[in-house]
Design brief:
Blueprint: E1 2-6, E2 13-17, E3 22-26, H1 29-35, E4 40-46, E5 50-53, E6 56-60, E7 65-70, E8 76-81, E9 86-90, E10 104-106, E11 122-123
Parallel strand pairs: 3-10, 10-11
Antiparallel strand pairs: 1-2, 2-5, 3-4, 4-9, 6-7, 7-8, 8-9
């Protein structure tokens, strides 16, 4: 199955082929700052499963991750692993914003105090144990 999505202005479009490897909500401080939101709800795909068209910009938010955004409207679309393996796709950027449901919260230790996690999902204080 192929699911499509894009930015607010439509200048950047993407296709994601197959099912995501996982669907998580990240509460880390880097994601909070990068998304301008209390958390980053994303579906993680192998980068080879994604096709992106349009003019994007990148910002290295850490040693391992580039944040990818539309150069026209600024929509934050992806957290792209710099080693070429994985990409987190912002759930709300899919045309069907209900296509995927998160199954876990990660980096709960950095969660904003007023966010209440009462959805019954698994919670990890940092990242998923290996």
């Amino acid at each position: 199955m192929i699911r499509e999505g894009g930015c607010l202005c439509g200048a950047v479009r993407f296709e994601a082929e197959g099912e995501p490897l996982n669907v998580r909500i990240c509460h880390c401080r880097i994601c909070q700052k990068a998304m301008g939101s209390p958390y980053f709800a994303r579906a993680q795909f192998d980068q080879k499963a994604l096709t992106v068209t349009g003019d994007t910009g990148r910002y290295a938010s850490s040693e391992n991750i580039d944040r990818v955004f539309c150069k026209t409207c600024g929509t934050r679309l992806f957290a792209w692993r710099r080693n070429g393996t994985l990409a987190g796709v912002a759930l709300a950027t899919f045309d069907d914003r209900n296509a995927f449901t998160p199954t876990e919260h990660i980096w709960v230790s950095e969660k904003v105090a007023w966010v209440t996690l009462d959805d019954g999902l698994k919670q990890y204080q940092t990242t998923i144990p290996a």
